[in-house]
Amino acid sequence: MFTKNQIFAAPLAGITDKPFRRIIREFSPDAPLVTEMISCHSLAGAHKNCLRNFDNYAGEGNVGAQIFGANVDLMAEAARILQDNGAKWIDINMGCPVPKVATRAGAGAFLMQDHALAGRIMEAVVRAVQIPVSIKTRLGWDEQHQDWADLIRIAGDCGVRFATLHGRTRSQLYVGPARLPVIQNSPIPIIANGDITTAEDLKKTESLGYSGAMVGRGLMGKPWILSEITGGVPPADVGAVVMRHLEYALEYYGEKAAVPMFRKHAAWYSAGMKNSSEFRIKVNQITDSNVLKVAIQEFWGII
Predict the structure, then answer these.
(1) CB neighbours of 63 closer than 8 A, spacing ≥ 6?
(2) Cα(262)–Cα(249) distance, rounded to whole angstroms?
(3) What's the CATH code of the domain at 224?
């Protein structure tokens, strides 16, 4: 059975920011977490409108920072910046399927189509830092081009320490069930990703030859899931967790940005509960943090 340090929290764009990682840490002190993906251009340019460019990871425990881009030199520079900011390892995104990354920027999943460029990026990033480097990729670009094993062999040759494999192609996006292949004779450890939400899922991935598992969308509304699937108990007072998460978001973003950003989290936390639809409609109209706090308190019976 996988140990707790073999079960990762996935990088989720717009979700696994510093406030959310702080909540995950309350339930999983030792789990490896990965930041939401960071543009090498934005990071190297120190763009001030992107707060994650200035995160310091020194007090966050075992956190890997994920970067994306297609410029070899900027990817190396971004990796050095993140190492200096306290990241424990660097993860290179080679699986993001969204058009603005995978087609227009020539990054993310596009690198599954250009193994030569992928290799140059991996070599440059490995040389640039003293901390481990990993990659996160998919089965391939589409059903006819599932060449993940070739990319992972190149990664091993470049000095990459481990890889995460999402069990869908780029063309699938997030539609349909993940299909994780059997792992045999891999040059580096491979972490399984895709539809992993239960202890049974962990057992299945281990039986397929994976060296760990990464939970992605299962984190949404359940930041305690890493603990839960290894035998931990869910929190008795979810409302208190939601309130702490909101406070962390307000502290990090400020009210103007935090309130609209937090609406999706409030909706995910409430999923499956009585009157959750009405609660989501109400929350989506709130712009004031104090009003949002009262709505959360009323829904979870805190007051």
Answers:
(1) 21, 32, 33, 34, 35, 57, 86, 87, 88
(2) 7
(3) 3.20.20.70
Report how many domains make up the chain: 2
The predicted model scores a pTM of 0.94
Given the structure tokens 């058009």, which residue do they identify? Answer: 99
Distance CA 170, CA 224 (A): 29
Q: Which tens digit of pLDDT belongs to each residue from 175-223?
A: 889 999 999 999 999 999 999 999 999 999 999 999 999 999 999 999 9
Looking at the structure, tell me whether residues 135 and 101 fall in a common domain. Answer: yes
Asked if residue 257 and residue 206 are part of one domain, the reply reads: no
What CATH number corresponds to the domain at position 289?
1.10.1200.80
- For the stretch 110-142, pLDDT in tens is 999 999 999 999 999 999 999 999 999 999 988
Q: pLDDT, tens digit, for every residue of 61-112? A: 999 999 999 999 999 999 999 999 999 999 999 998 888 887 777 888 899 9
CA distance 204 to 195: 12
User: Which of 67, 7, 4 lies closest to 216, judged by CA?
Assistant: 7
Dist CA 284 CA 228 (whole Å): 29
Domain that holds residue 75: 4-228
pLDDT at 246 over 80: yes
Structure tokens, 175: 């539609």
Active site residues: 96
